[in-house]
Amino acid sequence: MNQVKNPPDSTGPAMTIEPSPWPVIDDEVIASVVRVLKEESLSPVMQVGIIKEFEDNFAQFQGRKFAFAVSSGTAALDTAIHVSGVGPGDEVIVSPYTWGATVGCILHNNAIPVFADIDPLTFNIRPDEIRKKITDRTRAIVTVHIYGHPCDMDPIMDIARKHNLRVIEDCAQAHGATYKGRKVGSLGDIGCFSLQASKNLIGGEGGILVFDDEALFDEVVSWASHPMRQFQELQDKPLGKYIDSIAPNFRMHAVSAAIANVQLKRLDKWVVQRRKNLEYLTRALSDIPGIRPTCVAPDCEHAAHLIPLTYKADELNNVPLENFRNALALEGLETGSYVGTPIHLRPRFQEQRFWGKGCPWTCGHAERVVEYKKGDCPVAEKRCSGEELNLPSVGFHVPCNDYLDQIATAFKRAAKKALAGEL
């Protein structure tokens, strides 16, 4: 329940309600953790106990044949890139508007990121921009369902099938989001999720992959698990000859699985409520000059992990975004940016500095020069140049109209000050 500190007045800050805390750690979650601490191994090396239970439950939730739990969302993406056959000198198409780990996992596999621009309303990678970036070195596409909004997956899958490319879904922010009635993570070849403590489904830390291909499952086990699980799953299969401890060990901790397994039962209910709150807030902000509320494309259901808004300074006396954010802070509302600088314009990419000696860009397998420059992704660059204004969604898992009304009041007051020349 959202808690009222003091009712707002015309002179005090607009925000007087504390949002309901997230994550939800209640008696059922604690009991699940305690049971694992008392009854199970804290370092399971095979698919047993709570790890197996969570994997089975999540696969069923996603409608996929396999789920494989790992130590983080980054580990999930890293594994997905590797088992997709991506290697030195290969190219992977990805959005420049994302968390850095999405792109880092391409570099981890000594492959080269190629950036395709985003849609100005959903902030997701655009199919037509993907099509422009395909070369004979392209091996995969990573689709990031940013903020919880699904990518336009049908045309992306058509492009991928035409060019024989793997599609890896980064669903770190999109648990429970749907595209044309199907859950994200069930649309591409592999879906990757984070269970970090701010996400819609949490395990404290952790990640999980979902997919349908048994050959992929064997590759994932061979790459991301302890030799004992490799022996359990692969001893009578072709990859059995590679059972060893050389590959990364990305096992999920049993306590993370104990937390996530309980949270999973509540996820659908929470996401439905997040959606309702997003819709309510969108209506409340819709008539405020200079503020574009969150857009949701047709046939999509948003997971509302974060609430992306767009700031239009030209409608508010050209007040800089930072000044407007400071005005919101005086009303008790903290806002932020998520990406800040598009990935392709960050120093690591401008200097092509990652592994050392220029790799992967200058390794012997790179067959062309890939450079990153301003203007490559103009939509992403424009958003990151004074338009990116995001709200946290803490408390959105429960009804909170009064809290949302106060957010709208904070924006109205800040906009009024901007128009009056007070910012």
Briefly say what this structure is.
This protein has 423 residues and is of the alpha/beta class. The protein has a domain at 27-263: Type I PLP-dependent aspartate aminotransferase-like (Major domain) (Aspartate Aminotransferase, domain 2), CATH 3.40.640.10. The chain contains 13 helices and 15 strands.
Task: Explain what the structure shows.
- This protein has 423 residues and is of the alpha/beta class.
- It has a domain at 27-263: Aspartate Aminotransferase, domain 2 (3-Layer(aba) Sandwich), CATH 3.40.640.10.
- It contains 13 helices and 15 strands.
- It has helices at residues 27-39, 49-62, 73-83, 100-108, 127-133, 153-163, 214-224, 227-234, 254-285, 321-330, 347-350, 378-383, 401-419; strands spanning 3-4, 17-18, 66-70, 91-94, 112-115, 138-144, 166-170, 178-179, 182-183, 190-194, 207-211, 291-292, 300-301, 306-311, 388-392.
- Helix 9 packs across helix 13 (401-419).
Which terms summarize this structure?
Aspartate Aminotransferase, domain 2, 423 residues, 13 helices, alpha/beta, seven-stranded mixed beta sheet, 37% helix
Topology at a glance:
Elements: E1 3-4, E2 17-18, H1 27-39, H2 49-62, E3 66-70, H3 73-83, E4 91-94, H4 100-108, E5 112-115, H5 127-133, E6 138-144, H6 153-163, E7 166-170, E8 178-179, E9 182-183, E10 190-194, E11 207-211, H7 214-224, H8 227-234, H9 254-285, E12 291-292, E13 300-301, E14 306-311, H10 321-330, H11 347-350, H12 378-383, E15 388-392, H13 401-419
Parallel strand pairs: 4-5, 4-6, 6-7, 7-10
Antiparallel strand pairs: 1-2, 3-11, 8-9, 8-13, 10-11, 12-14, 14-15
